[in-house]
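TEACHING EXERCISE
Course module: macromolecular assemblies
Task: Read the component lines below, then compare them to the predicted structure of the full complex.
Student: A.B.
Group: 4
Components provided:
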Amino acid sequence: MIEIRLHGRGGQGAVTASRLLATAAFLEDKHSQSIPMYGTERRGAPVTAFVRIGEKDKMVRSLIHEPDYVVVLDSLLRKTVNITEGLKDDGMLILNSSVPPEEIELLKPYKVATVDATGIALETLGRPITNTAILGAFVKATGEIGLESVIEAVKQQWKGTLGEINVKAVEAAYEATEVGDPKIVAEVVGEKAPAGSRADWRTFRPVVDLEKCTGCRLCWVYCPEHCIEMVDDKSVIDYAYCKGCGICVEECPVGAIEMKSESERGE
Amino acid sequence: MGHKELMVGNKAVAYGAVLSRVQVTSAYPITPQTTIVEYLADFIASGRLDAKFIEVESEMSAQVSVQGASWAGARAFTATSGPGLLYMHHPMMGCRLPIVMAVVHRSNKSMQPDHTDLMAQRDTGWIHLYCENTQEVLDTMIMSYRIAENDRVYLPVALGLDGYILSYTAEPVEIPDQDLVDSFLPPFKGRSAPHPDMTIEEWRANMSRGAGGYGTQKAWIDHHENMMAAKEVIVEVDEEFGKVFGRSYGGLYEEYNCEGAEAVIVAMGTIASTARPTIDDLREEGKDVGLVKLKTFRPFPHDEFREMAKRYNAFGVIDRNISIGSGGVVFNELRSALYNVDDKPSVLGFHTGLSGEEVTPGMVRRIAEKTLEAARGPVEPLVEWV
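Instructor-supplied answer key:
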């Protein structure tokens, strides 16, 4: 029996990833369960899903508390969610990250696999939906499931072009995945967002070009988080509260605001 | 021999309706039942299911719509959850039409699952069947129509599946061939369906019977007798299902790894799945405790438990419900069933998993170990929350 926990954000496809893994296992004649954890999930908020692969009569119905593998679809999530909780000592982390495993800071010597799933998703799908890319990494790092099975599961999920580009994401991630040992540290420094903040939902952040900003206040009017302040008649965004929705970019009449990938700032 | 597909519990319900060739369906969406309505709408729109979908504004209307359809001679299906089920309570009460309804368990104190929703319909006169996995959901859908439409029974069936835990968990399911299902489940011949040769007296009698027979105590006696007759029919249908499809579920209950056991735990729904590997582990450790999975809650297998009481010294009843002010519903019924037996076994009660609280293998182990202790001597307390 192998047990897998997936962490992601609403919209990245963690639930679909768990479904695809269970399907791939099923295609290899194994019994599997794909378990989404439903609460108040919505776009951007942390989401957890689980997969069990093994014998049919060992399939319990509780959640997974001591996983063999933890798969993380979001590159910043590990700063706010305790992703190693309950992970078995010989367990492995499969992370969406643009840095090599040796630069990942952990308390325990787990095996770590990293892949820039966001970069691959943007390249192949044109949007930061990282579920299929991270599965390519899972296959490469663990060897628990065959690449062909995952590709077949992806093709069953999406027909036509959508299926093809997702297969490309799986394959590109499979090639790019690195496995290694993490940097062991005494304490992992997390980022704690202020109460009521949705800042950890961001995949992209809006950046204002102060030269172009005319101070018209349209972004200030439309920002749903009220996190834009006018300083000297220019828009200044409070990133402690900005959730990265991009409405300000849409509303700006002079194109002074641009969305930039969060991972571009060295995570 | 059919094919396999990875699917969630709710899709298994909808597939069951398709394979059973349901003719009329009506349902009002409510979490976690909603996707059943969506799958059914999809199946009907794509022509996979030739049925009339009656759109309604509430669960009350959904329930009376399918009752009307069943009265007119159509095989009818509906589905709901928690509060929606409570809203159906009035038309459900005393109904004697062979409808099948999926109840995707949802607590009334949260959106998460427990059995308080269906337990609140305990006395409505429906047959209650609880399922533990997705395959069992699909198979029980098909069996339910055979049971409901049986001449000795002719009563509605409520099929329970734990919301979220089963409704949204995907796992491989074997889907039998339509021909095989057709051979097992012949077309429905409604008793009350009107026809041109029917006298007005016959029609009135049938109408009244369907509604449960207004105005007479005899209607309650008949209803109860039909319900008690269902015990035999449920076992027969399960056995025949096993012969045709190669899978069976014990009918009223299943004894799992009980051989030579001193004590047994009693579980319903998905808790039974969690209990199986735990019981295997305990047996391997030499602890003589087994599992009784209670599938049929109504009609309640009183006699069968009395038989079991001759073999086991203790029963640990897991209730994913509570009758507030009294206790565990199954615990109370089982204890009452054993009142007149000689050498009464101990019966312990455990409340757990209410409002969707997780039930882990560790919790089941603790329950099983305490029950085993009770088989050898008195333990305290008799009832506890786990």
